[in-house]
Amino acid sequence: MKRNGFTLAEILIYVSVLTIVFLAVSSFLTWSIKTSAKATAIREATDNGRRAMEIMTREIRKAKGIYTPTSTSTQLSLETKISTFVDFYLCGAPTSAICLKKESQNPIAITSESVTVRSLVFTQISTTTPSVRIQLGLDYKTQAKLQEYQASVDLTSTVSLRNY
Fold first, then answer.
1. pTM for the full model?
2. CA distance 79 to 68
3. Which of 93, 98, 101, 162 has the fewest C-beta atoms under 10 angstroms from its C-beta?
């Protein structure tokens, strides 16, 4: 007598193989999602930092003079060629952003809401050829406390006035 169907051993092997395949696929998907989230956090923090540094660098290079005292400061005031002033400073509450304020204009944030400015320090490092060192620290803003959703970036640049 011939019986159709599967034996118990065949069913157990089939279920075991499917479980192993499912675990491998789900592990890969979990790893992929975490890697993507970390890359997004790093990219967002880095892009914001670079953009802010480029804007500050451009304004410093084309300035006529540095108005801020020669000590270390969290605010930088620049005198333009047409004797107006451009200011960079921390703004926004409860989280920090970097603001650019041109004389007689409203301030605008040059960092996005997706990052928090952890530190911003301007140091005048030369008086013969006015130069400013910018130290900037940014954190990616996230509600998650997991490491893969967090990113920080620290940037430093030194810029000299071209029109001096």
1. 0.79
2. 10
3. 93
